[in-house]
Write a structure and sequence with these properties.
With 290 residues, this protein is an alpha/beta fold. 39% of the residues lie in helices and 15% in strands. The strands form four sheets. It has a four-stranded parallel beta sheet, with helices on both faces.
């Protein structure tokens, strides 16, 4: 008996096997075949798709999808909080990758009503980045590239945990913005990065992902380290406004640090690079203890 027809049949089945996954909102996403026309509804999703080997399958992306360089050439479909639904539909995507806490639920519902499968992601821990790489690889049929990227991420993460995970705790305040004064709550991935470095987020008890806080609350928390982000590669001038509060430990010891927001505020493989910088800064603060 010639086994070739059976082998070909099995190969055909494996190629066209349905993809069924559950996203971070608990919704089941089904694809008949790996996605070939993907719309990215968040800048960090765009970057992670590229890292997972699926950049060439992205046909639309939201504003500020600017990394890697090739992402800048992708047609725009509005901003993550103001999606252009008509533009998305016109691209005839077979998958949209969304951001659970960033995209409008009403917009997501409308996309699904149009028959567009939507996978919603909501990374809460730094480890979730590797998991998202693997999941996007599964959805796009680029598993080998995605798995390699995830393995490299986990390896670097393990090195940082070994180096800093058991170091003495450092009370840390992460400042997203000045007006209004915003920080990160305990459920935000940046809070997990602070823990990775042996730090303690002074506002970890707050439930919102990006809560507003008062200057008086920061002073009362007396952080040993203040880390700011801002809008780009330049250190924000307002970080030095804290110097007027000379009673704070972070000010007395000159522990006012800056990390470009793209390295910490986007849940992408570059997050491990931002983590390495934060860990080094927190370690510098330890070195200033008497």
């Amino acid at each position: 008996m010639n086994p070739l027809p059976w082998i070909l049949a099995l190969a055909s089945f494996s190629v066209h096997a349905e993809i069924v996954v559950r996203d971070d909102s608990g919704t089941t996403v089904r694809l008949a075949t790996p996605a070939s026309r993907i719309v990215s509804l968040a800048p960090h999703a765009t970057e992670t798709l590229f890292a997972a080997g699926a950049g060439g399958k992205i046909v639309g992306a939201v504003d500020y999808s600017d990394y890697p360089e090739a992402a800048r050439k992708i047609p725009r479909v509005g901003g993550y909080s103001r999606l252009d639904l008509e533009a998305i539909a016109a691209l005839k995507p077979d998958l949209a990758i969304g951001w659970a806490s960033g995209n409008s639920p009403a917009h997501i519902d409308k996309l699904r009503a149009l028959g567009i499968p939507v996978y919603l992601a909501q990374p809460e821990r730094i480890d979730d980045v590797a998991a998202k790489l693997e999941r996007y690889g599964e959805l796009a049929g680029t598993q080998a590239t995605a798995r390699a990227a995830a393995d490299a991420f986990r390896t670097r993460l393990a090195e940082l945990r070994t180096q800093y995970g058991t170091r003495p705790a450092v009370r840390t305040f992460y400042q997203i913005w000045q007006q209004p004064l915003m920080t990160v709550g305990g459920g935000q991935v940046i809070s997990d990065v602070i823990r990775l470095c042996g730090g303690t987020n002074v506002f970890a008890d707050l439930k919102p992902l990006a809560p507003k806080v008062a200057v008086e609350a920061v002073i009362a928390a007396d952080p040993e380290v203040i880390v700011a982000s801002g809008m780009g590669e330049a250190r924000p001038e307002w970080l030095d406004d804290w110097r007027q509060w000379t009673g704070m430990t972070a000010v007395r010891r000159d522990n006012l640090y800056f990390i470009p927001p793209d390295l910490l505020q986007r849940h992408t493989p570059r997050l491990v690079e931002g983590a390495a910088r934060l860990c080094a800064q927190i370690e510098m603060a330890r070195g200033k203890r008497k």
